[in-house]
Structures are given as structure tokens and as C-alpha cells.
Amino acid sequence: MSTRGIRRAHTIGSRMIGAALCLLLVVVMGGSVLAHVEEMPDASPANSHDIQQPSPSITKEAGLQAASWLLTLPYGAAKVAYAIGGGVIGSLAWAMTGGKTEVAKSVWIPSMTGDYIVQPQHLTKEKPLRFLGVPPEAPSF
């Protein structure tokens, strides 16, 4: 394959990844954005002199949402890697104990459950961020 072909394939691949990420943003953020659109005041040119600055609470919510998105990228990647590792280790434990599911679940549940996405409630400490999952018999807070 020529250098020109490699560059074209790389450009097309980059565009596809970019489009997929944009689509993911629209799907995930769509509900949140649409919920805020209904609350926005009419901003027609006739009353443009009456437009007010966003309230501090809206600005704070937007900042928390942006921060949660930015923190989700490294946190989510680490959580997915940890869950995959837990799946592999749990499977090995299951195989080495002759198929004892309890042993495998003791690895699978903490590693594969828990929070994969950082939410604004986690940043304001309204809701705990759980990297490790809580087994069903353990008390939840």
C-alpha cells in the first residue's frame, strides 16, 4: 500500500472515530440538553435587550457536567481494565477450584460491578463513587 493510501485510510479512520464519538455524545447528552432547552427563556431579537446572564446554578451544573465527562474518560478506562482483569482472574479461580462459582463470584462481583461513569452527584458527594462493587449480602450505604 502506498503512503498516499495509508494517509487516506488513516484520515477515513479518524473521521469514523470522530463521528462515533460525536454520536455517543449526542446520545448520552441528548436527554440532558433537551431537558435544559425547555427551561430556557425566549431569546428572540425583539426582546434581546432583556436577555440575562445564566444563573450561577445553571453555570455550576454545566461545570459539574463537563467535569464529570472529563473525569469519566480516565476513570472509565481504568474501571473497564480492572473489570476485564477481574473477569480473567475470576475465570482462572473458577477453573482452578474445579468449578466453584462462589470463588469466581468473589472476584467477579467486586471487579465487574460498581460505577463506570462519574456523575455530577459523585462530584458533589450526594452519591458515593464506587470503584469496587458491593456484594449482594454486604450492606449498602
Describe this protein's structure.
This protein has 141 residues and is mostly helical. It folds into two domains: 1-36; 57-136, no CATH class. 65% of the residues lie in helices and 0% in strands. It has helices at 3-37, 56-96, 101-112, 120-123. The longest helix is centred in the middle third of the chain and has 41 residues, at 56-96. It is flat, with a radius of gyration of 23 Å. The N and C termini lie far apart (58 Å).
Provide a quick synopsis of the model.
This protein has 141 residues and is an all-alpha fold. Helix content is 65%, strand content 0%. Helix 2 runs antiparallel to helix 3 (101-112).
Largest beta-sheet details: none
- Integer tally of domains: 2
Tell me how many strands there are.
0
* Helical proportion, percent range: 55-70%
* Cα gyration radius (Å): 23 Å
Sequence stretches where pLDDT stays below 50 over 5 or more residues: 31-40
Mean pLDDT: 76
Cα shape: flat
Distance between termini? 58 Å
The secondary-structure class comes to mainly alpha
Strand content: under 5%
